[in-house]
Specification:
cell shape; cytoplasm; RNA-binding protein KhpA; GMP Synthetase, Chain A, domain 3; alpha+beta
């Protein structure tokens, strides 16, 4: 039996995707609040995330409003289930997170990107121009 928050996310996502039967929302409660894990058909992943993450951010905003009503903190994790590992064969400057990474890994990737940028700027400062 699914809860109101699962039904809410399922309803919204099923109206967006082309394969509504493949939408699965799992619910887990931990110390940070309620974690909703969303799995969709790999073909629909782009629709759920949206351009520059706009649709996913909107879903999270709606969940925040639902959480305010229910006195709960919701987190939404969108699972990339198409077998993509998130690794690329590019230089360290293009170190971005894939869809299924956790928040900690996203912060780590952003901090390593910022670290590389700081190093490059420091090298530019050392140049005698």
């Amino acid at each position: 039996m699914s809860t109101i928050d699962q039904q809410f996310v399922e309803y919204v996502v099923k109206t967006l995707v082309g394969h509504p039967d493949d939408v699965v929302v799992e619910r887990e409660i931990d110390e940070k609040g309620v974690l909703l894990t969303l799995t969709v058909n790999p073909e629909d992943l782009g629709r759920v995330i949206g351009k520059r993450g706009g649709t996913a951010q909107s879903l999270r905003t709606l969940l925040r409003a639902l959480g305010a009503k229910n006195d709960a903190r919701y987190n939404l994790k969108i699972v990339n289930n198409d077998g993509f590992t998130g690794t690329r064969e590019r230089d360290d400057c293009d170190n971005r997170a894939s869809v299924d990474n956790s928040t900690d890994e996203v912060v780590e990737n952003k901090s390593s990107y910022a670290e590389n940028t700081r190093k490059e700027l420091a090298e530019l400062d050392d140049l005698d121009i």
